[in-house]
Amino acid sequence: MTLTIPFAHSTLGFERFFDEVDALLRDTTTTKTQTQFPPHNIIKLDNSHYIVELAVAGFSKEEIHITVHDGRLTIRGNKANKDDNIQYLHRGIGTRSFIKTLTVVDTIEVRGAEFIDGILRIGLENIIPDHKKPRTIEIGSELKEFNPQLLNEATA
Question: Which residue among 25, 57, 128, 135 sits deepest, i.e. has the most Cβ atoms within 10 Å of its Cβ?
Answer without folding.
Answer: 128
